[in-house]
Amino acid sequence: MRLPLGALLALTTAAFVTVLTEALPAGVLPALSADLGVGESAAGQLVTVYAVGTAVTAIPLVAATASWRRKRLLLIAVVGFAVANTVTAVSSWFPVALAARFVAGVAAGVVWALLAGYARRLVPAESAGRAIAVVMAGIPVALSLGIPAGTFLGGAVGWRAAFWVMTGIAVVLVGWVLLAVPDFPGEPSGRPRVAAAVRMPGVVAVLVVTAAFVLGHNILYTYIATFLGAVGMGGSVDVVLLVFGVASIAGIWLVGALIDRRLRALTVAATVLVAVAAGALGVPADSPVVVYAAVALWGLGWGGVPTLLQTAVAHAGGPAADTAQAMLVTLWNAAMAGGGVVGGVLLAAAGPGSLPWSVLLLLVPVLVAVRRFPVR
User: Are 187 and 326 in contact (CB under 8 A)?
Assistant: First the structure.
């Protein structure tokens, strides 16, 4: 069956905007911090407060808007991005920028809770995984292309211009959604369904995999520049991240081709690939070739993980799928924030060489829990 690419690519763009809005401050941090009159460590909290906004509001908002029409809710979230990025672009006072970033995080929580379910409803059940893979392709595209482009633009014409471009993309996306994305009803009741979602077979397993996998990934990814500096590749961070991004795109393509038949096996394969990569990075070596090969395996394994977990929790959640998605989004963002904290502690206590081994340790419960996934 041919997928409804016009609608799916609009959702892909929503994922792209979400990830790029989250990570863009990191790429323009020196200029942004100087312009707002704060240190770089304080300016870095623009990323943290975004994640906090997502984590603390996703479940309550999904519960409160469960009965809303899906298209209306998606449009409100995209407009939220446009407003938040505009306020960030014009702000000259750091607390205002922080508030705008929190609003952007709230919008992100709504978008992430909607995307997988929306994609599944656009296609027959046997094509749901492929549809979700198309939508989730916005994540590696944002990481491998969007962030470098935004960083370049920020350096060339100023960081505010990069946020204005994000506003423009969001405005175009509003029109695209209006024209190309069909509407669907929400649930008949807006009551919270957290308990019902947790009781669905397989949901807890998916959440355990999410917490451990995302925490492990972010412990290393957050401090990849520091790790590369320790192995003598501090000047190659941009190339290493490009390799990771390209491999991630290949990973999501492979997942999209097979996910509707091999979801559990693909999750195991992704876990093994990342484990092999972490092991290779954990063994001291003077060869950049080994590092590049390990990073390529890491990207190949990680690229499809968001699609795999979103699809798994959607299958497991059943009638409480939207709430289960919101729980996954909350846990994902908490694990992202936790990766920065835990990685920082490990870095101070044991040095950068400890980071890959912590990833290996966290992948053990992933391999145990994935056996309880709700599908083959």
Answer: no
- What would the pLDDT profile of 289-333 be if each residue is shown by its tens digit? 999 999 999 999 999 998 899 888 878 877 667 778 788 888 888
Mutual orientation of helices 305-317 and 237-282 as an angle, nearest 10°?
Answer: 70
C-alpha torsion 361→362→364→369, nearest 10 = 170
What is the domain range of residue 347?
Answer: 194-372
| Backbone φ, ψ for residue 18 (5° rounding) | -65, -50
DSSP run (H or E) holding 41: helix 40-43
What's phi and psi for 283, nearest 5 deg?
-90, 120
What's the rounded Cα separation, in Å, for the pair 20 and 37? 23
Residue 361 in any domain: the answer is yes
CATH number at residue 275: 1.20.1250.20
Q: What is the pLDDT of residues 81-123, one digit of tens each?
A: 999 999 999 998 999 999 999 999 999 989 988 888 898 889 9
Tell me, yes or no, whether 187 lies in a domain: no
pTM of the model: 0.80
Same domain, 211 and 311: yes
The per-residue pLDDT for range 234-263, each reduced to its tens digit, is: 887 778 878 888 898 899 889 888 887 888
**CA separation for the pair 184, 376 (Å, rounded):** 29
Domain count within the chain = 2
Please answer whether residues 17 and 77 qualify as being in contact, where contact means their C-beta atoms are separated by less than 8 angstroms.
Answer: no
